[in-house]
């Protein structure tokens, strides 16, 4: 849809209507600065967005736009179902439908990328949907694309080999082939969307001190070293495995363009320490850009006008840049 040089159109979902998603989506999409980078289609419930605009006194900003923000409606929630503060079944259903519709828009040519506001996973799962998270659902909707979760910030990028699984299941899930494929997917994304022509990737070890020659575990020698060799044979500049307690510092210092982390908290703890307010969750491996702010629904502050919009703004900027670069690379 997006010709070279034109502003891309982004489908921005509302997230859970009882969380801060509608607020950060609306505030970001009404930003003049972000409006110079992209066009927006809000996906969700028109009543939720109208309530949010009134509550935050954004009515003037909404009316001042030459073209009011279009809303792709997926629900018509009753007033009690769109109150901020606590998830409910109808609200979770609406949040889920918004994700489906946003992906439909992109696949149908109505948008160039998707930016998703936070949802309550437990509330969607309670409806009977198999929903580990946005990443897995959107991959399924995109034709079972092989994807990975990347966390991207100004000074650190982290790509996860595994995501939402119990810690006890991580060693069995970390195979040499999965690690090598993660590195390949990361290289492709860094080339296409971040314009890094020769990405330098570091692999974090599983055990303390990366096993210290087998003293604290043999996964580094048995699984990770073969994964590095396999990745290099495929032309990927993957280095390691490195001790997890130092590799993120080295990447931040500029030695590597991204760290391949083996499990969720290994990668997200150092990342959020650095980029809690401006970090972006990027699904790499999709045929279109998908980003999200790096935080949750924050039900405790929803509706109070206290939500920090900076991570959503970063997600929109990154999705817009990815869409432009992807279009230019085709």
What topology does this entry show?
Elements: E1 9-13, H1 21-29, H2 32-35, E2 39-45, H3 46-55, H4 59-64, E3 71-75, H5 89-107, E4 113-115, H6 121-125, H7 134-141, E5 148-152, E6 157-160, H8 170-173, H9 176-194, E7 201-204, H10 219-233, E8 238-242, H11 244-252, E9 258-261, H12 264-275, E10 280-284, E11 290-293, H13 310-329
Parallel strand pairs: 1-2, 1-4, 2-3, 4-11, 6-9, 7-8, 7-9
Antiparallel strand pairs: 5-6, 5-10, 10-11
Description:
The protein has helices at residues 21-29, 32-35, 46-55, 59-64, 89-107, 121-125, 134-141, 170-173, 176-194, 219-233, 244-252, 264-275, 310-329, and strands at 9-13, 39-45, 71-75, 113-115, 148-152, 157-160, 201-204, 238-242, 258-261, 280-284, 290-293. The chain is α/β, with parallel strands linked by helices and 330 residues long.
User: In the CATH hierarchy, what is the class of the largest domain?
Assistant: Alpha Beta
Low-confidence stretches: none
Q: Indicate the mean pLDDT.
A: 92
CA gyration radius, whole angstroms = 20 Å
Alpha plus pi helix count: 13
Distance separating the two termini? 12 Å
Quickly give the structural class: alpha/beta
Biggest sheet, strands in spatial order?
3-2-1-4-11-10-5-6-9-7-8
């Amino acid at each position: 849809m997006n010709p070279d040089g034109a502003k891309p159109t982004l489908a921005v979902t509302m997230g859970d209507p009882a969380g801060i998603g509608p607020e950060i989506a609306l505030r970001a999409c009404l930003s003049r600065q972000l409006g110079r980078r992209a066009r927006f289609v809000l996906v969700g419930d028109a009543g939720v967005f109208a309530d949010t605009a009134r509550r935050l006194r954004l009515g003037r900003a909404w009316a001042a736009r030459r073209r009011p923000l279009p809303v792709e409606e997926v629900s018509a929630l009753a007033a009690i179902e769109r109150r901020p503060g606590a998830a409910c079944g109808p609200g979770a259903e609406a949040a889920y439908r918004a994700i489906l519709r946003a992906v439909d828009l992109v696949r149908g040519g109505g948008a160039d990328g998707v930016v998703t506001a936070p949802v309550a996973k437990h509330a969607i799962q309670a409806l009977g949907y198999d929903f580990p998270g946005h990443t897995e659902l959107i991959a399924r909707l995109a034709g079972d694309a092989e994807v990975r979760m990347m966390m991207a910030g100004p000074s650190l990028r982290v790509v996860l080999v595994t995501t939402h699984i119990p810690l006890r299941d991580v060693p069995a899930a970390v195979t040499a082939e999965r690690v090598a494929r993660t590195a390949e997917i990361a290289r492709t994304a860094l080339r296409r969307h971040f314009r890094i022509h020769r990405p330098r990737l570091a692999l974090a070890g599983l055990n303390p001190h990366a096993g210290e020659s087998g003293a604290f575990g043999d996964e580094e020698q048995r699984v990770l070293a073969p994964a590095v060799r396999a990745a290099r044979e495929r032309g990927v500049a993957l280095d390691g495995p490195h001790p997890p307690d130092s590799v993120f510092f080295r990447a931040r210092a500029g030695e590597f363009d991204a760290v391949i982390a083996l499990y969720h908290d290994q990668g997200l703890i150092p990342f959020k320490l650095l980029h809690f307010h401006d970090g972006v969750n990027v699904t790499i491996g999709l045929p279109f850009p998908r980003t999200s702010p790096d935080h949750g629904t924050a039900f405790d502050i929803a509706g109070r006008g206290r939500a920090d919009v900076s991570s959503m703004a970063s997600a929109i900027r990154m999705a817009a840049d990815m869409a432009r670069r992807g279009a230019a690379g085709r």
